[in-house]
Amino acid sequence: MATAWTNDELDRVGSAEELVIASVRRNGVLSKPRTIWVVRVGDGIYVRSVYGPTSDWFRTTRSRQEGHIRAGGVDKGVSFLDADHDINDQVDAAYRSKYGQYAAEIIEAITSPKASTTTMQLVPR
Fold first, then answer.
1. Residue 100 carries which DSSP code?
2. Is 2 inside any structural domain?
3. Per-residue burial over 19-41, b = 16 or more CB atoms within 10 Å of its CB, e = otherwise
4. Model confidence pLDDT, tens digit, residues 15-51
5. How far apart, in whole angstroms, are the C-alpha atoms of residue 88 and residue 110?
């Protein structure tokens, strides 16, 4: 069982424009895949819900806290870990840097306090 990303995976997932994510539901079946933004901070890969904790895809991550991602040619099973809140400022900065070419309203939403409550670290399984 893998516990860390390889440097190549970190580079590929971290530089991918988007990530496709699906959660394992309580019944063991993968949820409908969603396309979301993804950022790398150090040796970690992070995602969050722009709509906060009420988003359907985010809520499905809560039951088994595992799923599957595809980004940058990486196709892997992952665990969803609630990120330490101390990392949120760095994750905000990564979102602003990586996606700064998008409308300010979108960047403000993904870096809002509501979105920050959903910050998850993706860890390979």
1. T
2. no
3. bebbbbeeeeeebebbebbbbbb
4. 999 999 999 998 999 999 999 999 999 999 999 999 9
5. 11
Q: Is 55 left (phi over 0), alpha (psi -120 to 50) or beta?
A: beta
Domain coverage including residue 20: 7-124
Short-list 61, 98, 68, 96, CA closest to 82: 61
pTM over 0.85: yes
Burial class (CB in 10 A: 0-12, 13-18, 19+), 11: middle
Name the domain count of the chain.
Answer: 1
Residue 46 near residue 84, CB atoms below 8 Å: no
